[in-house]
Design brief:
Layout lengths: L23 E10 L2 E9 L11
Length: 55
């Protein structure tokens, strides 16, 4: 989720789901350069499980 403020944090705009993913998004990073904000993340689309069953 992401939102921005144009008045130093007094109010904030609409909240946006940047990943547009209903599953987990991990390893988020945010960086600023000049007047640009860069956001990256890793999407987890599948849930993996490990079983200790012996065959």
């Amino acid at each position: 989720m992401f939102t921005k403020s144009l008045d130093n944090g007094t109010t904030f705009g609409e909240v946006r789901n940047l990943s547009n993913n209903s599953k987990n998004s991990n390893n988020q990073e945010i960086s600023v350069y000049d007047e640009n904000v860069y956001v990256v993340w890793q999407d987890i689309d599948k849930i993996y499980s490990h079983s200790n069953k012996k065959f």
